[in-house]
Each structure stands twice: as structure tokens, then as C-alpha cells.
Amino acid sequence: MNTTSALTSALDLTALRSRRPATASGNRVANSTARRIRRNRSSSANASKNLGRFPAVRVFAADAQQTPPNQGTWGDWNELVKPGQSATGRVVVTPSPTDPGNPLDWWKDAIVYQIFPDRFAPDPAGPPPGTSLDPWGSNPTIRSFQGGSIKGITANLDYIQSLGINTIYTTPVFLSTANHRYHPSDFMKVDPMLGGEDAFRELVDEVHKRGMRFVLDGVFNHTGRGHWAFTSLLDGQEQSPYKGWFLPKSFPVRAYDVERYHVNYECWWDLPDLPKLNFDNEGVVEHILDVGEWWVKEFNIDGWRLDYPIEIPNEFWKEYRRRVRAVNPGAVTVGELFGVRPDCVGEGNHFDSLMNYAFGTCSLGFVGCGFELRQDDAIGGEYQVIAVDAQGFKDNFGEVCAAYQKAHTESKGGLGGGSAHPSMLMNLFDSHDTARALWMLQGDTTALKMLLLMMACAPGPSMLYQGTEVGQTSANGLKGAGRDPANREAFPWHKKEDWDVDLLEHVKGVNHLRRDLYALRRGGLRWCEATRPSRAPDGSEAPVELNPEEGREECENLLVWERFFDSRDDGVDAVCLFHSSRVEGTGVMTVRTGFNPGETLVAAYTSLGVEGNYTVDAEGCVKISMPPQTAAVLTLPRDMHEK
Question: What SS3 class is residue 525?
């Protein structure tokens, strides 16, 4: 089996993708920050050069309601429970137990739902008067609006929370001429088309009343052509007081009726509608710092997802985070950076978290192993997925985790210094910027279910893009194009009869599993040895003498890891098994665990065809057989988790 690296792109790629008056003290900070930025500009520039095998899920919160056949059940209390023991598997990530003294500790437990506001839900009261909108659910285009609103989100919080979500992240809500709002006209206004400031304040308040969090997307590398400072430049040209906020190459500046690559001002990816801001300008620095503070003060948001931050100097982002933290010490900053960047995340650096696209490339490659994955040209063509077997996943994802774990261990760690623990990275496999996973998997919902479970069982917050849970693939269907704008279709409230209800229940189950099983959120991660008697070419067991390694072999499509703690006092471990082959079962596998001899493991989650109870033998192993495309999460009986 080819174990070619799924991170060919991710590991090498370093980048892709208020006019309120400043106070005197704010000016001093901005001036100092701008000076540091200018000093570091050159170094920063150099750095940037079988379907249906998954039935309803049985989990802590839901097992009393769901009783599909062959599901694991919580067994009786086992009198042989002892303190945790070490397993022989290689530790990739260390445990990260709850830390009440860390105001950002909540982020490690986050289960995030990403919302694209124009396409999630319309205002129940109807669209703003006099607006021209495409019908809800019509084929999306780059420029079209379909009337999704902030009040539509608020009206559907019961639905969102029912998914097991505890954190909402929306793409920008700034005043903008674009449906995605990444072309801001004013960073300190909520687009009236979405409902304005009052609607946004109500949404965040309602989210908080439910014990949930809210993270907002900020795009500060550039503005839209309609931004008030840029329109001043277009009107006043060389006389504009804001000409230094941008990077004109000549005058007169022309922003309309001009072709890409023939623009006479710096713009993002040479797109005329996205003029770049000049972060050597003290007014720009102070304005964006002010924006970051204002949304936290004014609306009490819980953090920022920061779009395309690579072209803005690191010194700015350190000051941005400092200013935001001064308002709310628990406000998280999540950078959209590609590749493996432990130098950018953690208290000693400039973001608290990153979007962990590397998890997506590895996990999609594994669950889609054995058939051709559809490729996606989103994000500049750099989100590429390559099929890998279990060893390939361990090599590649292990390399990612090891980079962050090593930096964290060798630095001070924790609040006050150091690099971020891997459990701070936000895992995802698709978003508004990529084709949908189900499209890339050619409609294989069984593979998608395994992918969702893998994300729930991995260290770090998980992120679900709206519509994944009901089976959305592409506005063009499986045979058409999958990326923007087809991946930004309206949520199908108008087509509930088309929802994949089985998938929806699965999403609810795995999210509740992550919420209720502490090890999945806070345990370390180590690979588990899983072997079977060697097989002859015809599939039968081979004579032992034909295998010098005692007649044992691994199953190339069985991936097993354990979320573990150093002590049973810290938490109860969980063994996670994923078998991606679409054709063959594993046969009887011997899986080495960190549990004690004589303990009984029960299934917090199993697929159909996987037994639910296992006794740990004298060597710390359990024997388990996995049919094609199945998974299981094994742990101690319920009582042990309720101590």
C-alpha cells in the first residue's frame, strides 16, 4: 500500500491563502507597533516567500435512547480496576487535563459549528424591504445574495445546540458588498442586510445564555473597494488623507474597469476589489487594533478567527492579541495558517490556535483509502488529499502532532510563555473555502461518518461546516464542480425531506461522545499495536515459519490510537479503532492497550458488526474483529467515568 505523505503540500507550504479617534496612549502603542513592524518587515517577507455500516451511535448521553442491534452496552462495575498502566505504544501527544487557572482552557473542549451567514437561515420576519435577492436554495453564484441573516441564526439555536455544538464561528458579518463579507466596507458595522448591530448583540447574548461561545471571523489583510478609506482615496487621489493607508503604485488610482494583474495599487492576489492595507502606516495599525478590541467590548464575542494573517507582520498580531486579551483574557485568537507552524501559536508567539488543515488532509486520505478521492482546487490549489493507509496516517499526522508537542515540551508551555499544546489546534476537514468532504469522498457517507468520528476522537477542538450533518455535497451534485460557489449552497431548510437523517443522528452522537468522554478532549494520544496471524496470498493464515516475526502482521487499513492519562486519577483512557477498507474485514486482531489485565472494556461507540464487550488479557491486550468500514471506541464501564 502506498503510504505517500498526505502532507506534501501542508508541510512545505508557509502561506496561501472605526473611524473612532485614537487616544494618545493608543497612538503611542500603535506608533511603537508600527515601528517594530517596519524593523521586522524584511525578515517577515523572507519567511512568507459497503454503505450503511454505521447505525445510530451509542454514547454516554444518548445510550438510553438508542438500542440498535450489536451495539456495545455499559457493563457492570469491574472489581479489578487499578491505577492506569503505561502501554508500549508510542506517545504522540501528552495529556492536557483541565486547567481552571487558564482562561483559554475552554477552547480545548470546543465543538465548533461554522456558519456562512448569507446561506444558513433567512430572517423569520422576511428580508429587508426593497432588497433584491435570489430565491433561497437557488444555485449559488459568486456575487448572489440569498438573504441569510443573523436573526435566522438566532431562531435556529435549538437546532445547532441539538447537534452537540458548544461554539459558533461565523464568517465575517462586516458591512460589505460581497455575500461572504470578506470585502469589508466598514470593520465597525454589522451589515444591515444581515440585521445590523442589535440583531448581532441579541445573537451573542442568546448564545451565552445557553452556555455556548461565539467566535467571529476577521479579515484585516485587505478591505473591499467600498471601504470608506479606499473610497476617499478614489475620490481624493493624491489629496486623500487616507492615501497612506493603502499601497498605490501610481496616480490616478483606478479600481473599476481594470483587469486583474493590471491594477496600479497593491491588492490581494491581484484582485482589484481587494486593496491591501499598509501595515507600515500607524493609522492602519491603530485602527485594526481598535477594531479587535471593539467587537470584544461592544458585543462580548469570545474570540477571533483571523483570515489570511500571513502577510501581516507577527509583531502586529502579538499586539492585537494583547489588546484583545486586555478586554477579555479568555478571548481566543485562531490563525488561518497552512503547514506546520508551532512558531506561530502559543503564549510565546502570536496566536492561541490555528486551523489544523493537516488533520483534514490526513484523515480524508485515510477514510478514502482504496478508491479515488476527488481533488479540490480551493485555497490556491493547496488543500490536496492523498490516499494513505494506517501507517501513512500515523507517519503524517504523527509528524504534525510531534512538531507542536516538541515545541510545547521544550518551551515553558502553558499561560505566560511557550508554544501551544497540540490540543489547542482546531481540527477540520472542509469549510466554505474547500469542496465539501462528502463531494471529495464521492458520496460515501460511511467514510464521512468514520471521518466525523475520527475528528471527535482526535486532540483539539473539532469544527463542523454547516450542512455537513444533513449530507450536503455541492450545489452541482456529485458529478459537478465542488468548490466555491457550489460548496456555499443554502442550508436546506426548504428540503427537509432530502436530509440524511441517519447522518444527522450520527453527527449528534459523535459530538455528544466527545462532550461526554473526557479522554477524547483531554487525554494524550499514543498509537496502539494491532496485529493478527500472518496471511498467505490466498487470504488464509500463513504457517508461522513463513514469518520471521512470530507469524504476526498488521492490517494496513486498521488505525488504532489510545487517548490516555498518566494516572487513573486524571481520567479514564479510551481506545479508538478505525478500519477503512471497503472490501475486507480485519480478521481477529490483537490490540495492545494501556488497560489492566482483567478489566472489561465496553463500547462507548461501535458500528454494526463489532462486538461491545472485551476482557483485557494478561498482556494488556484485547481481541477484536472489524468488518469493512467500521469503527469502535472502547473504555471502562460507565460507573468509572462517573466517579
Answer: strand
